[in-house]
Design goal:
The chain is built from four helices and six strands, in the order ααββββααββ. The mean pLDDT is 76. 12% of the residues are buried. The chain is 40% helix and 27% strand. It is of the alpha+beta class and 124 residues long.
Length: 124
């Protein structure tokens, strides 16, 4: 038992040291980046409508759970709209700004057509 305690203390010290070095070199602790993988939803359901020259997206459900309140964003083109929807989800799960670049656009439209009124975004 004594040897195991010494090993565990050494191991934890080494892991903390390595994690500290990684975060200084990379800028973000890789464990913090990985931790958000578990809280990202697998799918979101988004309603899209065109208002003049803007597309307006409203998130209806996350993981088949209806959204209380309103989660909306707008953009002039679909790609920017997808970027904005991803950013909206990251904000909802309180993902820090310095971690977001490691995920990019996790949610991509599945089978979206330009004239469709809804799109399903799935985690890739």
């Amino acid at each position: 038992m004594y040897v195991a305690d010494i090993y565990n203390k050494w191991y934890n010290t080494e892991m903390n040291f390595l994690s500290s070095i990684r975060s200084k070199l990379i800028g973000v602790d890789p464990e913090a980046v990985a931790a958000y993988q578990t809280v990202l939803p697998r799918q979101i359901d988004v309603t899209v409508r065109k208002d003049g020259k803007y597309f307006i997206a409203t998130i209806k459900t996350i993981e088949d759970t209806p959204i209380k309140g309103s989660l909306m964003t707008e953009a002039k083109d679909i790609q920017t709209l997808v970027n904005n929807v991803n950013d909206l989800i990251y904000t909802k799960i309180n993902m820090p700004a310095q971690i977001r670049p490691y995920y990019g656009n996790v949610f991509k439209p599945e089978g979206y057509k330009n004239n469709a009124k809804e799109m399903l975004l799935v985690k890739v």
